Amino acid sequence: MTAGTSRPAGTGAARAGSADAPDVERRALVALGRVVEPPAPALVPLVDALGAVEVLERLRADRLEGPTSRQVSAYRARLDLADVDRDLAMAARAGARLVVPGDREWPPALHDLRAGRPLALWVRGAAGTGLAAAVEHAVAVVGARAATAYGLHVAATLSAQVAARGWTVVSGGAFGIDAAAHRGALSVGGTTVAVLACGVDVAYPRAHEPLLSRVAQDGVLVSEVPPGTGVTRGRFLERNRLLAALSRGTVVVEAALRSGARSTAERARELCREVMAVPGPVTSPLSAGCHEEVRARQAALVTDGDDVLDIVGQLGVDSRPERRAPPGPLDVLDPEDLRVYDAMPLHGAVPAGQLARASLLPVPDVLGRLGRMAVQGLVEATDRGWRRAVPTARRHG
């Protein structure tokens, strides 16, 4: 069985007390979560084929085949860190639970990561509907931490628009664009998911403790590392694959030429997900990455939530209506009316006869057309002839 294949329900770990999987398998996965540093492509196929209990027993007996000897040595060196009861107690205090492949709450989209999928996920929030339901229709919104006021406004507005139409906004809980995306979704009573590079009981950055608590209350916090785990640069980078996998598409709002947001976009492309980018000022270094994505035809240009859902949504349901400029006063005129109107000078009045000669129309016809345009407020009669109405001349002359 391959790493990306879902096993029958009951063979993986799940939250305590659920009917999804045996407790012994669940506990083994908690232990393995302390042994490995995600991702674990050498272990995932073995867990799928043998089960976590058997893999853990073989590791303890030093007879685990598949990973390299160096990997096995690293795993064995961390066996003493595994304290299942402690991890489960920490999760319980935070109101978190463990979700694994085969559980009803496990998002099927994660199997697209194949051997790179998480062994398990720690989940906090959305206990009523579950993680899988929360991300069934989801869009990732990512971007710079040191975002501009423009980027923060666009991220919040776009996320609110997406969430207002029933879609979940997924982001990373960081400063800048991530925070704006979460807040935008929450502002309209929508659902948002924060995928963390630390434990779901850890507030990072600390200044976001109120925001992350709100996300846990009204949305979902997700992490593949055990409770109490801090952040590292590597965990941020590996977290990006989960952001991409849990979403139908990824929107990059602001990103420099080299940025973690573009890393998430690349992961999305690898998973055959849609990638979108918001344009910014051509002089802004924080939009240079977005512009490069569009220039290289690696991302679709989007400007709001309607654009995003037009790309990732269901045809005929989420399609964006065609955008047209509002009709102007002259749009109601037929071609011959326009010929008469265009024959008038920008300033001053001319007799109807002169307009007839310029428009190649009979004088009676011209007078009739002038009368109708006068009713519409486009022209007016004076003692010197006909002229364009002053307000219209200022707007359209």
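That was protein one. Protein two is written in the same sequence-then-structure order:
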Amino acid sequence: MSEAWDSPIADQVAARWGYAAGTAKWWRSSASHVFVLPENGRRRYLRFVPDSYRGPNSLAVVAELMARLSDGGSAVVRPVAAESGALTTTVATGLGAVHAMVVEPAPGADVDVSELTASQARQWGRALARLHRDAAGLGAGLPEAFGELSSVGTLFADDAELVEATARLTDMMSELPRRQDQWGVVHGDFELDNMAWEEGGGPVAYDFDEAALSWYAADIAYAVRDLTDHTGRPASVHRARFDAFVDGYRSVRPFDDEDLGRLPLFAGLHAVASLVRITRALGEPAQGEPDWLGELRDDLTGMAGAHRRLAVDIGRHFVRGRTRGAPRR
């Protein structure tokens, strides 16, 4: 990537949508590399992942899910078809094959957790409940969540504390029911950073990279993690926002106190899964890495440490299928 934030790889990919070289500008990199594309005074977003990280079918399933939800009236952004007419495409680049899609922008502005009102938190909860409701039956081809947990023993063989905490969390997860009202299609990352708010309206969601089949409570736990503390329970400073989110969710679909009590468990499971993904992505530093890549590596290393601490802290609260305490309302 150049100092002008463009990239020959992004240029190759953007060309499939008819964009000229130098048009795509780097925005961020996480589960996908994201580049901004100008479009008649607005922005579209180019998202692509290396084949070594995710296969073409995975991205195609997500694009189809987003298109069907958008067409059905859900408040999610819609994928933009490439010149070929397909919603996703695979491009052979100098760094290997990548799989890509382009999405429309989400109208509205970002809302920071410190600025979030109780009314907005309630809208946020309603939006996630509507997504769960509207996506029912649309999960063909999606993976099940938490597949990363099986690799913890190998990947972190020298970290007995983490391995033990993960085993406790995994044992509890294996006992959870998968009833229709508890399990289905989830967004996977329905946090404030992945939505925009229309003036006077609710949020519009994007970034479905982590869409999967999972427990709805797990999706809630990941969405509200900025409202919780080191045990996955509501932080005192955010208690009113947390309660408003839950109330909003319950105004659309059921979410009982038993599921509410499982949020810390899912927070711990998500922390382990995120730690595995980050550790795999980090790999070993290459000789002569550019400064921006070194900075990204430092940021990811810090995130990995935070996820590990969260997983261990929460794991300590679970002893042979029982949790010491549960969130109270």
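The domain at 8-103 is CATH 3.30.200.20 (Phosphorylase Kinase; domain 1). Keep this in mind for the problem set.
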